[in-house]
Amino acid sequence: MIVVEDVSKHFGGFRAVDGATMQIAEGSITGLIGPNGAGKTTLFNVIAGVLKPTGGRVTMQGEDITGLPPHELFHKGLLRTFQIAHEFSSMSVRENLMMVPGGQSGEALWNTWFHRGRIAQEEAALLKKADEVLEFLTIDHLKDEKAGNLSGGQKKLLELGRTMMVDAKIVFLDEVGAGVNRTLLNTIGDAIIRLNKERGYTFVVIEHDMDFIGRLCDPVICMAEGKVLAEGTLDQIKANEQVIEAYLGTGLKNKVKEEAAG
Predict the structure, then answer these.
(1) ABC transporter domain location, by residue (predicted)?
(2) Residue 201 class from Cβ within 10 Å (0-12 exposed, 13-18 middle, 19+ buried)?
(3) CB of 9 within 8 A of CB of 46?
(4) What pLDDT, in 10s, does the model give residues 163-193?
(5) Is the bond preceding residue 219 a cis peptide, omega within 30 degrees?
(6) What is the largest CA-CA distance in the chain?
């Protein structure tokens, strides 16, 4: 579905992404792991149009999308969330969801004067869809709560809900578990699995919680120093020598070997 070919992103002399190549299969939940500074979020930003690549190419279902801005990718069904949730804090949870779809009739001044009936119909449909999304995510009891009052995990669920308000094809989730308690993280995981199995969503997940990755993701891709090191199941990744060295360092890796041998 997504093909990343030799993508690089440099900031001056620093190579945040350095010739990364990978494929994201349609219908998969792909995990992207690696130590801090590996280039994972920068690669997300390049794919999602937040940053233009220094080099390389990104295609989606055969179409070259390299460097397209986020709003164009949004309409193609490519969405991403961020490590820190970006909610409209003074608006209700339900209103946050209703804001998502673009091209609403109420956005045009002419329609507010002469097509109020059409606007009312659209708003009723959006309200119904928003309530369905909140029920799916099991946070319908919070629909009238101001989004700024939600916990970190609830805000992550709200961000996931935003992707459900449009026809998302692939969703990039950046550290969905950051600052989230275990109970809510399980709820988020349940929602991701259901969206994948019942609605055909493709996901790419950056996450440091290996239990969460192990539960959701196959395949798992490991990055380090801007490059793709390895791809496979989580067990295969954990056993990979390059991955062990990237996470633990050569000295500690050898120490672990010595202890195992002793």
Answers:
(1) 2-250
(2) buried
(3) yes
(4) 888 878 999 999 888 888 889 999 999 999 9
(5) yes
(6) 82
Tens digit of each residue's pLDDT (9 = 90 or more) over 185-234: 999 999 999 999 999 999 999 998 999 999 999 999 999 999 999 999 99
What's the full length of the chain, in residues? 262
User: Domains of the chain by range and CATH?
Assistant: 2-87+163-260 (3.40.50.300), 89-149 (no CATH)
* Position 64, amino acid: D
Beta-bridge mates of residue 29: 203, 218
Angle 186-190-191 from CA coordinates, rounded to 5°: 120
pTM: 0.83
Nearest Cα to Cα of residue 13 among 222, 226, 224, 223: 226
How does DSSP classify residue 147? G
pLDDT computed for residue 83 by the predictor: 64
CB of 83 closer than 8 Å to CB of 175: yes
